[in-house]
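Final report, closing paragraph on structural work. Over the funding period we assembled a curated collection of sequence-structure pairs, and we close with a single example.
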Amino acid sequence: MKNIFTLPPSIAEEIIEILHETPLSVQGNPGVRIERILSAGQVSPEGFWYDQDENEWVLLAQGEAKVAFYDGALVSLKAGDHIFIEAHKRHRVEYTSVNPPCVWICVFYEARP
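Its predicted structure, as stored:
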């Protein structure tokens, strides 16, 4: 068993770990991927927007962060906050705290038409 709050000594680059994954459309069920993402000051590159084929549920378990959306919305998150990002809703990470570093739990799953 692993603990999501066990951190490496430093986080020089964002760290993405897949905690669990099932293939898309197994026996008619949507696929799912659960990730732990660690960030400490890392943000999306200037001008870059995520535009994902999957829905994403995001929990910020530790730290503080800001997620910007292409429509101009800016969401500030603190430990315990969660958001849902619908597939193809363009977004980017604008800020992540360094101390404490951010521990994100993200659940990606297939968007159904």
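The radius of gyration is 14 Å. Residues 15-110 form a domain with the Jelly Rolls fold (CATH 2.60.120.10). We thank the funder for supporting this effort.
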